[in-house]
């Protein structure tokens, strides 16, 4: 059963094991360990709001793909703040098939992963990154993965710091959120998302958008649940990031 408004898949599918050596480095932003990658001279940046498993290798690899696309006309600095301060969801809670695991997962969603608590941090994070990178960044894109997709929906309204945003296999898709979004948005859903909710979300959008469903992929295939040892998953993972690059190239 879905926990606290999250999708069934978000609360039942375990993360995939995957090895990857990231290309970037880490620095501190607002007390959070933050991954940074990409050319420091780039004037556009992308802030990634990861899924509940934190700094997974697949997420960091995705950040590197966006930051090192070898396109001299479209370069990005990419940042991934550790919004859970080193304490993401425990893999041992999955699947939440006991009362104890269900309670721990529920407490996590109501505590550290409560969306409003995270959403209010985003403008401050962006401002501090701008200060620490010497004022080179002129435009921001946002990318939310699973749980992070909800944060993107909440922070893409009037007065947003973002010029364009994307959500991949988003959790808690609510068509009502779409009504307030004020910047172009790309949503790449998996076959596990509620199709009615995704369709309703797109219908309510008043901005340029690209909404696509990868029907044969699981919730989380572009982040911690992506089994990149599986050739089909790897190809769709790569296709998804290519789609994101095309979107950011157009709007940033």
Describe this structure in words.
It is built from 8 helices and 8 strands. The chain is an alpha/beta fold and 252 residues long. Strands 1-2-4-3-5-6-7-8 form an 8-stranded mixed β-sheet, with helices on both faces. Helix 5 links the parallel strand 5 and strand 6 (164-168). The termini are far apart. Mean pLDDT is 90; it is low at 1-16.
What topology does this entry show?
Elements: E1 25-29, E2 32-37, E3 44-49, H1 57-67, E4 76-81, H2 99-110, H3 115-119, H4 122-132, E5 139-145, H5 147-154, E6 164-168, H6 175-178, E7 185-190, H7 195-204, E8 209-214, H8 231-251
Parallel strand pairs: 3-4, 3-5, 5-6, 6-7, 7-8
Antiparallel strand pairs: 1-2, 2-4
How many helices does DSSP assign? Answer: 8
What is the strand content?
A: 15-25%
List low-pLDDT spans.
1-16
Dominant shape? globular
Secondary structural class = alpha/beta
- Percent helix, as a range, is 25-40%
Number of strands: 8
C-alpha-based Rg, rounded: 17 Å
Largest sheet: 8 strands, mixed
| Distance between the amino and carboxyl termini | 39 Å
Mean pLDDT: 90
Order of helices and strands: EEEHEHHHEHEHEHEH
Strand order of the largest sheet: 1-2-4-3-5-6-7-8
Task: Fill in the keyword field for this structure.
about 250 residues, eight-stranded mixed β-sheet, alpha/beta, disordered N terminus
């Amino acid at each position: 059963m879905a926990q606290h408004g999250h999708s069934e898949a978000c609360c039942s599918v375990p993360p995939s094991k995957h090895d990857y050596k990231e290309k970037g480095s880490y620095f501190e932003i607002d007390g959070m360990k933050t991954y940074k990658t990409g050319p420091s001279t780039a004037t556009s940046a992308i802030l990634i709001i990861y899924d509940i498993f934190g700094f997974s290798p697949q997420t960091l690899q995705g950040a590197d793909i966006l930051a090192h696309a070898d396109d001299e006309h479209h370069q990005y600095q990419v940042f991934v703040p550790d919004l859970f301060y080193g304490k993401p969801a425990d893999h041992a809670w999955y699947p939440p098939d006991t009362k104890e695991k269900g309670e721990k997962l529920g407490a996590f969603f109501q505590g550290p992963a409560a969306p409003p608590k995270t959403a209010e941090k985003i403008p401050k994070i962006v401002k501090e990154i701008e200060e620490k990178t010497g004022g080179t960044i002129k435009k921001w894109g946002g990318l939310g993965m699973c749980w992070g997709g909800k944060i993107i929906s909440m922070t893409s309204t009037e007065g947003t710091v973002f010029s364009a945003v994307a959500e991949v296999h988003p959790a808690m898709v609510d068509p009502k959120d779409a009504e307030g979004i004020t910047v172009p948005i790309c949503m790449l859903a998996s076959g596990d998302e509620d199709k009615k909710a995704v369709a309703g979300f797109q219908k309510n959008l008043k901005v340029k958008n690209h909404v696509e469903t990868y029907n044969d992929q699981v919730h989380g295939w572009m982040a911690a649940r992506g089994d990149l040892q599986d050739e089909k998953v790897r190809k769709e993972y790569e296709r998804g990031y290519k789609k994101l690059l095309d979107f950011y190239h157009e709007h940033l």
